[in-house]
Amino acid sequence: MSENRTAELWLKIDQLHLKFLQAEETPAKLEIRKKLEGLVAEYLSLVPQERKFVSATTGDLIATSAKWKPDFSLVKAANAFRAVEQYAANLINQPWRQEFWSIRQYSGFYKHSVETALSGPEKLFLEMGYSASTAQAQVLCLPQPRVGEHPVNTDLVTSVARDCVLACVECQLLADIHSGVVTQFPITLDEVVEFRRDHIGSVEVCVRELVYRKNQLRYQFPATSPQYGLQNYGYPGQPQPFPPTNGFPPVGFPGPGQLYPPHGFPPTSYPDYHHTQFPPAQQMNGFPPNSVPQYGAPVN
């Protein structure tokens, strides 16, 4: 990893993001956004997890949501970060508007755009300077400002807005990695997120490494997993217990020195187990030979 390159990228991201926040809603702003996301994608592919975001909370939100939300979607998560970013932009550009000074967590915006996609999204607003209202339940509010001033801490809000851009692009990269692997091996979003947190690289590098690991597991544990119902090369199968017996091998179990035939299935029948151990006793018209004493007869 080139430290000079990552420092250069971060400076460009900082400058371009400020330009994006101040730009008016025109096609030119869309071009700025496209360029910004391109720089962010490169930056996120070069740095470890602890350097991806301004606040570690942002990265933890993605991991926690992927792990605990049963209906987690990277697309919805990206849209939620985008919605929070837009709210932050409104605060930066119009800090005097008092309707932005409080957030009702039961409102349609918060419920449908943010809370349904992320686990614990209020942390983003707390980092902007909001706190829980003591007067109303489920309301976050900024501190009461001095007369003639607004309560918006522009630096805090800008940092959260930038983190939302970074998180939005990270969700897109995670989705691309998942798509690249799942066509070849079963993999969950949680697995992809955890792998990404511990590894540095582009989408192509991550896909190649995950496919390699899955392929290795395929030959180590070629089993059927009930988690997927089909042949699962990513996980070993569950061990199956032998049926209870009276101390002897079950019927159909191969005796010493015997092997299953090449097709992998046991034959329909095997000779009695003792036949593989001892030669059969000599039979004479259904009676034992003379050398074998009768039951209860004395033995010389």
Explain what this protein looks like in three dimensions:
- With 300 residues, the protein is mainly α.
- It has 9 helices and 5 strands.
- The chain has helices at 3-22, 27-44, 56-68, 74-93, 108-115, 122-127, 154-182, 189-198, 203-220; strands at residues 102-104, 131-132, 139-141, 223-224, 231-232.
- It has a 3-stranded antiparallel β-sheet with strand order 1-3-2. A two-stranded antiparallel ribbon has the order 4-5.
- It is globular and about 70 Å long.
- The N and C termini lie far apart (91 Å).
- The relative contact order is 0.09.
Strand-helix topology:
Blueprint: H1 3-22, H2 27-44, H3 56-68, H4 74-93, E1 102-104, H5 108-115, H6 122-127, E2 131-132, E3 139-141, H7 154-182, H8 189-198, H9 203-220, E4 223-224, E5 231-232
Antiparallel strand pairs: 1-3, 2-3, 4-5
Helix pairs in contact: 1-2, 2-7, 3-8, 4-7, 7-8, 7-9
Output mean pLDDT. 81
Helix content: 40-55%
Order of helices and strands: HHHHEHHEEHHHEE
Quaternary structure annotation: single chain
Q: Poorly predicted ranges (pLDDT <50, ≥5 residues)? A: 224-240, 257-284
Global shape: globular
Largest sheet, if any? 3 strands, antiparallel
Main β-sheet, spatial strand arrangement: 1-3-2
C-alpha end-to-end distance: 91 Å
Computed over alpha carbons, the radius of gyration is: 33 Å
Number of strands: 5
Measured by DSSP, the beta-strand proportion falls in under 5%
The SS-based structural class is: mainly alpha
Total helical elements: 9
